[in-house]
Amino acid sequence: MSAYLLQAEDVTIQGEGVTIAPFSCALEAGSRLTLLGETGSGKSLLAQAIMGTLPRGLRARGRLVIDGETFDAADDKSRRALWGRRLALLPQEPWHALDPTMRAVSQVAESHRHVAGRDRRHAQQAAWADLAELGLAEAGGKLPGELSGGMAQRVAFAAASAGGAPIVIADEPTKGLDAPRRDAVVELLARTPESGGVLITITHDIDVARRLGGEVVILRQGQVVERGPAQQVLTHPQSEYGQELLGAEPSRWPRPAPLGETAQAPVVSATDLAKARGGRELFRELSLTVRPGEIVGVVGPSGCGKSTLGDMLLGVTRADDGKIQRATGHPLGFQKLYQDPPAAFSPHWRLSRLLDDLVRRHRLDRSVIPPLMARLGLDERLLERHPGEISGGELQRFAILRVLLLEPCFLFADEPTSRLDPITQRSTLALLVELARERRCGVMLVSHDPALIGRICDRRISLGGEPVSEVRQTLDPALA
Amino acid sequence: MNGSTLTSTRRLFLPTLNGRQRLGATLLALLLAFAWLVPWLFDADPARQQLTRILQLPSLAEPLGTDHLGRSLLARLASAVRLSLGMALLSVASAAIPGVILGVIAGWRGGWLDRVLGSLADAFLALPGLLLVLLLVAIAPGNFWALYVGISLVLWIEYFRVVRARTRVLVASPQLEASRLLGFGPLYLFRRHLWPELAPQVLTLAAFGAASAILAMAALGFVSVGLRPPTAELGLMMIELLPYYHEAPWAMAQPILVLFVLVLSLNLLAGRDPR
C-alpha cells in the first residue's frame, strides 16, 4: 500500500488531433495540485481522463492508482463505482450541472441519500446543514434559475461533495466569478485537502493557483511546460511560457498611454439613473459621463447591475428614472462587446459572410479592413471559418473589428476577456485600449477583476454592496 | 479548403442526412419515380373498367393485376400516391408557412399579440385534430378542399408553438442584440440568426406532418367519409378491396404496402439521430 491517495503514471490521451504527453503525479492526503494553462492546453482532458469521462473519440492510456487500487486509464468504466464516493468532479459551469426544475436543497439531499446512503430524513437534514454552512440557508428552497452564479457554484459543490469523496477535481471553478466570490470558492475548495483529501484544480487564473498553493503544473498544448511548488513556479518561473503567463497578470501590465485632453464633450452622460429589477433596487441617483477616448471601469459583485447599466447607456434597456444623453450624429456609434464571444455570433455562417453583410449594409469602405485585421492580429484565412471554429480570443478580436468598422464613439465592453486565458486577455485588452485612445472612442469596461480595472482604466465606478441600497461612485484620481 | 466549402454549402441548404434519413429519402424518391413514371410509360387509366378481367393476377399486360372492377392496379396506385403526396405537400406548405411566420411574430413581439395568437392556437388545439377534419368534411362531403383545409388547420399549430418558443429564446440572445446594434433590420436577423436555428426543427416537423396528413387522408377514405369513388385513394382502395381479400389478397395488400412505405419513408426522413 502506498501512502498516496491518487497516483497517475504516464497518463496519455490521444485522438481527434489531440495529444497529451505522458503525465504523472503522486498525491498524498492533504495535497493540492493545480493545472494551469490556456484554453486548449489539455488541462480539462487530464481531469476527464482521471475521472473516466473523456469525450468520444479520445483514448486515455496509462495507470491510475486510487486509494491503493490500480486502474487502467484506458478502461473508463472502471472508475464509475468511485464517482461521488472516492472521486468527485466539480463541473465547469455549475448552472448547467444542476437540474433546473429541482430545488437546491433536494439536489444536495439526493446525493446524501443515494451516494452517501442516508435515509430520507437524515439526507434532508444533512443537506440543510451543508447549505447553511456554505451560507446558503435561505437559498435552499430556490430553483437553480433563481440562484446567482456564485450560489449555484456552492450548491453544486455541496451536491458533489455530499458523498464525502476525498479526491475532488474542480474544473475551472472560478470562471466568471467576481473577486470576493472567487476567494470564497477557493476557500471552499481548500477544505478538502485540509480534511485529509486531495484537491486537483484546473484553472487559468494565476491568482487562484497562488491562493491554493501546493504543486503547480503549467501545461501548454498538451505538454507539461513546468511544474513545482506553487511558491517557486509562480514567483520565479523558469520556462519562457511560465514567465509570459505570469507577465499576463493584470498587476504587471504596463499602464496605457495617458488620455490627454479631457475637455471634450462627453460621448454619453447620464444623470440620476435608477433601475430596479425583480423588485430589487440596483442603483439610484447614479450619474456618470464618458468622454471620447476615455476608459471607464465598472466593478461590483455579480448581479449588481453592471451589464444593465451598460445596456441602458446603449439604449437597449430602459432606465426607471433619470436622463441619458448620447452624443448626436452617431446613430451606430454605440456598440457592445460581449462576455462570451461565440454567443455574439450566429454560428451558421462564415466570418467572411458576416463581415460582408456589415460592409454591404452600411456601404463601408472595404480597404480599411485588411490593415485593421493585421493590427488586430487576425489572419485573413480565419475569415473562411465559422465562429465556432476559431478560438475565443480570435473571435473577440473579430468582434472588435466588426464594431470598429462602424467607427463607434462609445463601446460597452461587458467582461470581454473573462473567458479568455491570461495571455490572450492581456493582448486583447491592450489592443482595445490602444484603439480606443487612437480613435477617440469612449469605453465602459466591466470586469470582476479590480486589479485589471485599476490598471487600465482612467476612472472607476463601483456598484453595489449585497443589498444594494446606496451607490458609491468613486472617482479615482487619474492613475498615471 | 475545397472540402470544407462543399460541406458548409450543403449544410446551409440541406441538413446532412444520416444513414436512416438517407434510406427514407431513397424510399421516397422511388415512390415519386413510381407515381410519376407510370402514367408516362404505361397507357393506363385508373378509372377504366374492364368487367371481363376482374381480380386478375399480375401479368405482363397488368404488372400489378386488376381490382374487382377490372381497373389497372398499377395505374390506380400511381394515381393514389400522386394524390397523397400532392396533398401532403400542399397541406404541409400551407401549415408551415403561416405557422412559422406567426410563430416568429409572436415570439419576437411578445405582449398582447403573443397572447392573442397563443390563445388562437390553444383554441384549435382544444379540438381533437381528426374531429376538426371530420367537421369540415361533413360540411362539404367528398370534397378535396375540405380535407385539405381541415388537415392544414390541425397541422399549423405545431409549427407555431415550436417556432414561437425557439424565437423567444433567440430574440433575447446576445447574437441578435449584437446584430441589432450593428444596424441590421428584422429581415436580416431572421435570415442569418433565426432561420438557421429553426430550419432543422421545421423540416423535421414537415416530414412528420406530411406523414400524418397522408395517414389522415387514408383513414378518412377507409371509413368512407373522405374522397368519393372512383377516385384512386389509398384508404378508399383498401376498403373497396376488403370484401375480396380472400380471393385476391395480393390486390388488397398493395395499397397497404404502399401506404406503409410512404409513411415509413417520411418518418425515417424526419427522425434524427437521438445523439
Automatic annotation (TrEMBL), chain A:
GO molecular function, one term: ATP binding
ABC transporter domain boundaries: 6-246, 268-480
Compartments reported by the entry: Cell inner membrane
SUPFAM superfamilies: P-loop containing nucleoside triphosphate hydrolases
Topology class, membrane: Peripheral membrane protein
Primary localization: membrane
Keyword Nucleotide-binding tagged: yes
Gene3D superfamilies from the UniProt entry: P-loop containing nucleotide triphosphate hydrolases
Record flagged with keyword Cell membrane: yes
Family matches, as InterPro entries: AAA+_ATPase, ABC_Ni/Peptide_Import, ABC_transporter-like_ATP-bd, ABC_transporter-like_CS, P-loop_NTPase
UniProt keyword annotations, A-Z: ATP-binding, Cell membrane, Membrane, Nucleotide-binding, Transport
Top-level taxon in the UniProt lineage: Bacteria
Family classification: Belongs to the ABC transporter superfamily.
The protein's name in its UniProt record: ABC transporter ATP-binding protein
The organism of origin for this protein: Billgrantia aerodenitrificans
Automatic annotation (TrEMBL), chain B:
Pfam families according to UniProt: BPD_transp_1 (PF00528)
Keywords: Cell membrane, Membrane, Transmembrane, Transmembrane helix, Transport
Organism expressing this protein natively: Billgrantia aerodenitrificans
Domain ABC transmembrane type-1 as annotated: residue spans: 81-270
Domain of life: Bacteria
CDD domains for this protein: TM_PBP2
TM segment ranges: 21-42, 83-108, 120-139, 145-163, 202-228, 248-270
InterPro entries with a match to the protein in the record: BP-dependent_transpt_permease, MetI-like, MetI-like_sf
Protein family membership: Belongs to the binding-protein-dependent transport system permease family.
Membrane topology: Multi-pass membrane protein
Cellular compartment(s): Cell membrane
Lineage of producing organism: Bacteria, Pseudomonadati, Pseudomonadota, Gammaproteobacteria, Oceanospirillales
The protein's name: ABC transporter permease
Gene3D superfamilies according to UniProt: MetI-like (1.10.3720.10)
